[in-house]
Specification:
Number of strands: 11
CATH class: Mainly Alpha
Strand order of the largest sheet: 1-2-7-4-3
Oligomer: single chain
Shape: globular
CATH architecture: Orthogonal Bundle
Largest sheet: 5 strands, mixed
Strand content: 5-15%
Radius of gyration: 28 Å
Distance between the termini: 124 Å
Number of helices: 15
CATH superfamily: Cytochrome P450
CATH topology: Cytochrome p450
Bound molecules: protoporphyrin IX containing FE
């Protein structure tokens, strides 16, 4: 029998081994060169199958507090899983500043919501648009807001006049308990309406009332950030069907106003923001980034919704909170009496000489911020933030409430203390870095100046005439509020007692 060829076997073995080693090395090197760079994602809570972390976000009307508490455990930057989709939640001031100020070009986009497209019939707008179109729209609207008086004496007269109508409607209640929400909302809305489409509406106008009810429902029943709007199957339920129907009615109201403006347009007499848009687009489609005439109503809707519900809720919060802190109300009234008296209407320069009033209004906005979350932004490219990677397209949720209530920035954050905004000698207000109720960076609220004007002029006018009291017969008010798109004080009654 021939002996086995040992050397042949040896070489067969070597060549097989070399082949395997060569092959493995090749695969490893190939993998190293072609694999996606490992990314370090922000930390976050463990996920459940399918729903991810949704069960942790269901804080109902108190989601802002639930999400602020989550960050105590997981830090100021958190990765959250919403039905398998990654979202980044920011609650830390320095991280928000880094993202929205230092890396502003990477975090200026808003998330494009499918729900928005369903409700409006197209993507984008002033609040939700991106890119060149949004930039152009924002610039034009800001210029128009300034031209029509934002921050100026001309608008001051209009707001004071509206405050007088509001005071008259309060007087009609003769100190008895009443729900102030409808008239405050109407008064505030009249300011933005007069700038946007040159009209104010009586408080008992039924068509305008139903429009305002719709805005209130829209802002209180929906949410940003929203989980429900990510489930298209829900949009066929009666609530969403009715929302869509009412939205269509609102659109046709605003379209009607724009049509009327078109019919009466005179380029030598630009009356309001609609006219500014009409002048800007003298053809039907306009340049790529311009707002086509057919969509002017959408820009006006954004101003109308963003400018009505936010500021009216801030005023309602001010009235309600002051009933619970009568010594603060008294001190603010005293300061107003000393400087202005009860007859002369307040003016913007008075604010500098009313530091306690100003500090009280700032503390209201910190204590119960109406914009707890900014409308979600999105990373436009992969971006590093504090060593973590935020991948392109990831929605970024920002919890302003968490910043405004963080013990890192505020002593006794759950207490209502206007003095925290005063200088040591009490003669002027100071604005801490963490006071950001209007957001930050390139998408900061464009109505900030208008809102601050309104809050100051309306409240000063009202405090000149009335002392607000909580009805003795009503159950104690719930100061936690109800979160929708805005944080509202919910339904309450108040007594406006003549001074
Ligand atoms: C107390 C009153 C108000 C508060 C607390 C408030 C708060 C905010 C916040 C937090 C944002 C998001 C900013 C960001 O993304 O960083 C915002 C955006 C916006 N606000 Fe306001 N707002 C108020 C009043 C107004 C008024 C009166 C108007 C109308 C003139 C207005 C129009 C807008 C618009 C159009 C945007 C979107 C800006 C953009 O995306 O470029 N807001 N607001």
């Amino acid at each position: 029998m021939a002996s086995p060829n040992v050397s042949a076997l040896f070489f067969d073995y070597i060549s097989l081994q070399s082949f395997l080693i060569f092959g493995m090395s090749f695969l490893i090197i190939y993998h190293l060169f072609t694999r996606e760079k490992p990314v370090k994602l922000p930390p976050g809570p463990p996920c459940l199958p399918l729903i991810g972390n949704v069960h942790r976000l269901l804080g109902g009307r108190q989601r802002h507090i639930v999400m602020a508490k989550m960050s105590d455990k997981f830090g100021g930057i958190m990765n959250i899983n919403v039905f398998g989709k990654r979202v980044v939640l920011l609650t830390d001031l320095q991280l928000i500043r880094e993202a929205f100020l230092d890396k502003t070009d990477r975090f200026s986009d808003r998330v494009q919501s499918q729900f928005g497209e369903y409700i409006w019939g197209f993507k984008g707008s002033l609040v939700f648009g991106n890119g060149k179109g949004w930039k152009y729209h924002r610039r034009t609207t800001l210029r128009a807001l300034r031209n029509f008086g934002m921050g100026k004496r001309s608008l001051e007269n209009k707001i004071n006049e509206e405050a007088r109508y509001l005071a008259r409607s309060f007087e009609d209640e003769s100190g008895r308990p009443f729900n102030p929400q409808p008239s405050v909302q109407n008064a505030v809305s009249n300011v933005i309406c007069s700038i946007s489409f040159g009209n104010r509406y009586e408080y008992d106008d039924p068509e305008f009332r139903s429009l305002l009810d719709y805005i209130k429902m829209f802002m209180s029943k929906l949410a940003v950030p929203s989980i429900v709007s990510k489930i298209p199957k829900l949009w066929v339920t009666p609530f969403y069907k009715s929302l869509k129907k009412q939205t269509d009615e609102c659109i046709s109201f605003l379209r009607g106003v724009v049509e009327h403006h078109k019919a009466t347009f005179d380029s030598n007499d630009i009356r309001d923001i609609i006219d500014v848009h009409l002048q800007d687009n003298d053809d039907e489609c306009g340049a790529e980034e311009k707002l086509p005439r057919s969509l002017i109503w959408r820009g006006i809707f954004d101003l109308f919704a963003a400018g009505t519900d936010t500021t009216s809720n801030a005023i309602l919060w001010a009235m309600l909170v002051l009933t619970q802190y009568p010594h603060v109300q008294e001190k603010a009234q005293q300061e107003i009496d000393d400087l202005i008296g009860r007859e002369r209407p307040p003016s913007l320069p008075d604010r500098l000489h009313l530091p306690y009033v100003d500090a009280t209004l700032m503390e209201i906005q910190r204590f119960r911020p109406v914009g707890c979350f900014v409308p979600p932004r999105a990373a436009s490219v992969d971006t590093e933030l504090r060593g973590y990677t935020i991948l392109k397209g990831t929605p970024v949720w920002v919890n302003l409430y968490a910043v405004l209530h963080s013990p890192k920035h505020w002593k006794d954050p759950e207490e209502f203390i206007p003095e925290r905004f005063l200088s040591a000698d009490g003669k002027r207000t100071e604005t801490p870095e963490a006071f950001i109720p209007f957001g930050l960076g390139s998408r900061i609220c464009i109505g900030e100046q208008l809102a601050r004007m309104e809050l100051f002029l309306f409240m000063t006018n009202l405090l000149q005439r009335f002392t607000f009291e909580f009805p003795k017969e009503d159950p104690k008010p719930n100061l936690a509020g109800e979160l929708g798109i805005t944080l509202s004080p919910g339904r309450f009654r108040i007594c406006a007692v003549n001074r």
